[in-house]
Design a protein that fits this description.
This protein is 20% helix and 44% strand. The protein is an alpha+beta fold. The strands form two sheets. Strands 2-1-8-7 form a four-stranded antiparallel β-sheet, with no helix packed on it. The longest helix is centred in the N-terminal third of the chain and has 24 residues, at 6-29.
Length: 153
């Protein structure tokens, strides 16, 4: 069996080191590792009930939801702003014990492609400013939670 000469080992180590440095330099200049774009999200949690009135601050959401959800009473339970960078996960705990998780995964194009996980709903959605995503939530305190996720304008 032939053994490698010491010079061959050094050459091999030099080649592998050069390849590694090249790969690192490529990824450093690549958009894969470029500075992540950040997005300002607004999460609004609403409580829709079969009785009651549309509460203060819920009027905008009433116009959005009236055709999609059956309710008489609607109130804002919680509003939270979150700044999340591309490929980072934002999360907001919900009053029913569940958690809304969202992660911008592709900032190209209008808005961003955002991965969302809330309750039994999981998916990737193209979001743009001014176009909220609305998720029907679980039963809670005699009504239903409604979660609205939007990119702040």
């Amino acid at each position: 069996m032939l053994s490698a000469r010491p010079l061959d080992r050094r050459r091999r180590a030099l080649v592998w080191t050069s390849v590694l440095i090249g790969v690192l330099l490529f990824f450093q200049s690549s958009p894969v590792l470029a500075e992540a774009e950040t997005f300002e999200f607004v999460v609004t949690v609403l409580h829709a009930t079969p009785e009651g009135v549309v509460g203060k601050g819920a009027g905008r959401y009433d116009r959005l939801l009236r055709r999609q959800v059956r309710y008489e009473g609607l109130r804002v339970v919680k509003t939270k702003r979150a700044t999340v960078a591309t490929r980072q996960i934002g999360s907001v705990p919900l009053p029913d014990g569940d958690t809304l998780r969202f992660r911008p995964i592709d900032p190209e194009g209008p808005g961003a492609l955002v991965a969302v996980d809330v309750g039994s709903t999981q998916g990737d959605f193209r979001m743009t400013k001014g176009k909220p995503l609305i998720f029907g939530g679980s039963a809670w305190k005699g009504g239903r939670l409604v979660v609205v996720l939007e990119i702040a304008e």
